[in-house]
Every structure is written in structure tokens, then in C-alpha cells.
Amino acid sequence: MMNKNQQSSQNSGEERLSALMTNANAIKVIAQAVEGTLGPKGLDTMLIDQFGDVVITNDGVTILELMDVNHPAARMLINIAKAQQEEIGDGTTTATILAGALVNEGVNQVRKGVPVVKVIEGMRWGITKAIQAFEEKAIQVKEVHDIALKEVARVAARGKVDIADLVTRAAQLIGKEKLVDPSFKLAEIIRAVEGAENQVVSGVIIEKEPVNPEMPKKLTKVKVAVIDDALEPEEIEDEALGTEAGFTRYMRLQEEFGQNVAKLTRLGVGLVLVDRGIHDKAEEIFTDAGIMVLQRVPNKQLRQAAEFTGAKPLKRTGLKKEEKELVQLIGEAEAVYLDEKLKHVCILGGKGKAQATVLVGASTEEVVGERERIAKDAAAAVQAAVKDGIVAGGGAMELAIACQISGFRQEARGMAVYGVDCVVEALKQPFAQIVLNAGFNPLEKLGNIMAAQAEKGKDSLGINCDSGEIADMLEMGIYDPVLVKKHALKAAGEVAEAVLRIDTIIKKKERGSANISQREE
Question: Which CATH number fits domain 4-139+390-501: 1.10.10.10, 3.30.450.40, 1.10.560.10, 1.20.1250.20?
């Protein structure tokens, strides 16, 4: 017979395990939703909403974002995947699969009696060692013309060579200095357009048409002004307009605005880009002067155009400056033209920093989104490779590092070794899933590869997903960016630790319920 304390302790343990299992199962469901997309033989997922709208995609973060998910642990994993996408732009599927594996292995250890704190301690140690190993094994990309970059793009683009070619050409135009700039994201220059031809434009594309159809459609040797504001007179309150002084001020502001706008025509400006709307008076002045104006330009495109042309963004009050000051803020471009078919404006030959825009052609509206997602993944992978180097892909390097960590697991303290084992098993999961998606037995292939790597001393040995034979991933041109690997593993560890630390689930009271009770009293 158990006494009350023993019974209470047993109930408490069961509650903790129940909470852990509930969260672990939610994580498992999310991982299963994307694992079938991994690798060159990964398949697509169809998502359908309540209205029957369909999205078919192979992109992990898109699947996660569009899934109907309510469980808090599952949402936690999705948020981590989104953070991976925002920070790196690729590797969300890998991060999700690693997180699922870490949580699953962690739960197995806890059920065997290993304290959660020791599992977490070992996981932290193992992940730190794995990240260090990735850094040590990285092959640095010395220049943007390295053939390995095109292979990185091809792998990230799921074998679509045309997209890989576009992305690497854009990277070469932009240059290494810009690619390693933390504020620049190569994926942001990608545009997928229905009916367009694949091309890399050495310039900036603004997805707008001129404000007035009477404005010119083509210009050469163009001066460019960028207005990071609304191009309208300063506002005056309605109440003030009812007074004589207020009306007089209103008329003065209108006149002053016209004079300020006219300064741009006298300076020979041919293109004006405006962040927000443009006043009718300004439109009339610019149209008469033969100036092309684009309004409500997306902020990213506005910044790209300013950098490319060398223009300094102006607020509308900045137009009050003297013309000799304004001329220093004007940019230049060799040519500007409206593509009437695609309904956008191209700016070429800017005097500022080099820019490129990748136009990805799509035959139908249905495939535009997927083509753009694929191209952005490839662009993110290329940029990550330039920043931090590459390693053998196909899950091969993860297997090699798993063996390495397993070899010195005893360096971890006490029962923390079981947490290290969780990391070792999780690192095997990407390879196993790639092999499974290719139609082979993952246990058989995993054993074969680990033995071959140990026998030949080559970390790059993996599986040819077409034949099932052992092959050197580097010789096959299958590379992965180290930065993607490191960030995915780190993100997965954060999710696993957060889930394993939860031992109680309590439903919160409804908002406002306390106030309602007080009012009833």
C-alpha cells in the first residue's frame, strides 16, 4: 500500500509525463507534415482552405504557415521555422525535422527515467559540439564565380537548373561584398511574373506603372529623385480653414508646394519615385514637363532604386532646400523604360551601388508563387554559402558529425550523456528521411554509409538517390550551406528544450472573467 505522499508523487509524475507526451505528439505531427518534401525525391503537399482554394508546394515554411494549427507547442515549432526563414531564408524543413527528432528522443530518455534537466544539459553540449564541427569542416567559397555556388543553388532549387542559373548570375553581378552585407538579402531581388521570360536584369524593377498615361514610357540619361513621403502640400486642419488666417496659410502652402515641385523640373529630373500618393497639382506639373512618376512604390524597391541610382531619399519638406543643395540628392540612371506587357518599370545603368533583379518566368498564375518560393530558397542558400562556406549535402555531413559526437560522448557529465545521444540520433534523421523519400530502406543505407565513411575516412560519402549506391556528395556537386545547417540545428535545440521543460499544462481563465465576477458581486 502506498501512503499519501507516494500517491501524490506518482500522480505528479504521471501529470508531467502526460504534459510532455501531449506536446511531443503535437511536434511530431508538424514534423510529419513536412518530412515527405525533403531531398531530391521529396513530394509536394496540397493545402486546401474552407473556400476550396488550393496551394500545392514543396516549400516547408509555406506548408507550416498555411496549416490549420491550434496546439501551442505546434505553434511554437512553426514560429521557430518562420524565424529560420526570416533569418536565413532556407532550411525550415531541416529545422522542423531536427526539432521533431530531438523532442522524440528526449521523451524516450525521460520515460526511461533520465531527469529532464540532464537531457537538456546533454542536448546543449551535443548541439554546441555539432555546430563547432560544421564550422571546422566548412569549405569556404572564395569568389562568387565558384562553380560550387551554382550547385548550391541547384540543390536548393530542387533541381531546377534554369532557376539556379538565374540566381548565380545575379550573385555574380552583385558581388561578394554586397552578399556578405548583413542588411542585404539576395532573396529580395527575386520576382516571379506570369508570362515573363527568365532573365537577370542588371538594375532595379519597380512593379508600378506611371501615374499618368501621358507621361513618357522611355527615357535615357535620366536624373532620379526619390521621395520617401507623400508628394502633397502640408496639411492644415479643417477648423483652421474656416478662418481668414487659416485660409491665407492654406493658399500659401499650396503656392509653396507648386514652387517646390517646379524645382525638380528645373533640375532636369526625369524620374520621380514616391513612397506614398502624389497630389493632382504635382501630377500636372510633371506630366507637362515630360517626367515619369511612380507612386506608392513598395519600400524595399524604393530603397533599392535609391541605392542603385545614388539618390538620397527626400521628405516632402526636403524640397524646400535650395536647388544647389537638392542637386546633391539627385541620382542618375542610363535608361528607364516601361514594360507594358509586364506592367513594370525597369531602371538600368545606375550610378550608385550595383543591383540586379531576377525575373523568374511562370507559364500560369498557379505556378507563380511556387516558382518564386523556389528561387528565393536558392538565393538564400547561395548567399549563406558565400557568408559561411559549404559542406557535403544529402545528410552525409550530419552522419559524419553524429559519429564524431558519439565517439566522445563520455566527455559529457554523468547522465547528460543521454542528452548527447538525442543529438546523435537527431543528426541521423535528415539522411534517413532523404533516403526514405527516394524509395530506399533508411536503416540499411544508414548503416552502409556510416561504415563506408569510417572505412574510407571520407565525411562526404552519401547515397545517390537515383541508384541507391554509395557516392561522394562533393563529386556529385551536392553541397549545403553551413550557415543553414548551424541555424537549423540551433533552432531545433531551442524548440526541444522549450518543450521538454514544460511539465504542467494549465488552462488560463478567460479574459475579463474576473472583472465580470466582481461586477456581479
Answer: 1.10.560.10
* CATH number for the domain running over 203-355: 3.50.7.10
Q: Are 374 and 166 in contact (CB under 8 A)?
A: no
pLDDT in tens, 17-38: 777 888 888 888 888 888 898 9
Beta strands in 165-313 (DSSP E): 190-194, 199-201, 203-206, 218-227, 269-274, 292-294
Q: What is the spatial distance between Cα 332 and Cα 330, in angstroms, rounded to a whole number? A: 7
**CA–CA gap between residue 292 and residue 508 (Å, rounded):** 57
Average pLDDT rounded to a whole number, residues 89-93: 83
Fill in the DSSP letter of residue 231: B
C-alpha cell at position 62: 509555406
Residue pLDDT, tens place only, 347-374: 999 999 888 899 998 888 778 888 999 9
pTM score > 0.70 for this model? yes
d(CA 284, CA 291): 10
Residues contacting 454, CB < 8 A, separation 6+: 403
CA distance 46 to 55: 6
Q: Which three cell numbers stand for residue 342?
A: 509586364
Concatenated DSSP letters of 87-134: HTSS-HHHHHHHHHHHHHHHHHHHHTT--HHHHHHHHHHHHHHHHHHH
Q: How far is the CA of 204 from the CAs of 191, 270, 308, 322, 475, in angstroms?
A: 11, 16, 7, 29, 37
Consecutive H or E run containing 280: helix 280-288
Say how far apart CA 451 and CA 455 lie, in whole Å: 6
Kind and range of the H or E run holding 471? strand 470-472
> How is residue 179 written as a grid cell?
552578399
Average pLDDT over residues 251-277: 91
